[in-house]
Amino acid sequence: MRMTSLFLGLAVLAPAAAWAQAGAACVPDSAAAEHVNACAVQRFQAIDSAHHILYGDVMRALSANERPLLRKEQSAWNRQRHATCKARHAADEAAANWPQRLHDCLSELTQERRQDLMHWLHHGAPAQR
């Protein structure tokens, strides 16, 4: 189930990531859209990888009866993250820097989610869900 969610998440991002990286490398000081987009994709990938590691650590630390609740919450959050960022930047899809905007949004929401996962790690399931 967890792997299915991971593959689904990667499938949703793959087209944008591939488009952003096609023929371009991250050049931090460049103003060219393809370089800026590639940098945004790389930043998101690093943040998302760290997020997946933290999620795995939290899952291992939880009791067997807490894991299904976090798994359900994480899956819902992942769907909402993608929907929120796509909606937030729907009007920008034709822009050359759309991949940057999308991935910066995904990075921001992923970093915000870290606090929730840290709460799970240190305190278990939140009292009200």
TrEMBL record:
Keywords: Signal. Residues 30-117 form the Lysozyme inhibitor LprI-like N-terminal domain. Pfam families: LprI. Residues 1-20 form the signal peptide. InterPro entries: LprI-like_N. This is DUF1311 domain-containing protein. It comes from Comamonas kerstersii. The lineage of its organism: Bacteria, Pseudomonadati, Pseudomonadota, Betaproteobacteria, Burkholderiales.
